[in-house]
Amino acid sequence: MNEDKIVEEGLGLAEAAGLTETAQESFNILHAFWEYFQADFISSIPISICSFLVISVLIERSMYYQKNNRDISLFIHNLQMQLEKGNLEAAQMLSAQLGSVIGEVAEEGVRLLAVQKEDFSRAYDITVNLVTRKLQKYLPILATIGAVAPFLGLFGTVSGVIKALFKMSLGADGASLGMIGEISNALIATGYGLAVAIIAVVAYNLFSNVVRRYGDDFQLLKLLFLSFSTVDFGDLTMVNEVEEHYDEPSQAASNQERPEYPDFLK
Q: What domain range includes position 63?
């Protein structure tokens, strides 16, 4: 009789825990998640909003970084060749053709190299900081969700356990078995929050590495520009223009047309 009673109690616990064959066949994680979502709006809705934000930022930042991806080594090599020739116009055109945030910074660097050599480093850093803000856009959202989502899930679990203990305190028949179901639904909240937080933290770390890589590229451009900061591009440009537009006959004609001055004025 005791064995029969134990078996019966065991079957009851197994059914409550979802371990019997009938329960296993009908168990569905999506169904269990939907039950949790309906039972605990206080935690399920905020975590769902966080998951939507994570997916949105993940897609948007991935597309943005992919659109601005360029071969920086080849670009720096070509830019250095133009700067060595003293051709700022070609260097600026090369930067504009590159596009992306790297081309934007390089184009501004060429302009600063021509008009603001004395304070080039500070002016260039201002440009880099403005562009870095574009690269870091929406990343604080991932960092915040990565820190908050586990606590939202834990809050849902705590509230579910409180409900289960309250039902058990009523002393109704089958309260202990019902508590197992309540706790299982409550644990889904913790898993949900942890899943969202893990995705957010991984995405934040990956995107932060991408931003640091762009920062290294900006530093390479700065070193390149500083190496030409002592070159007077104004004189080089003027010499190039004179060489291109110089015409000996017209120059000789202008010299012949000059009036002869008396000897005491020469």
A: 28-227
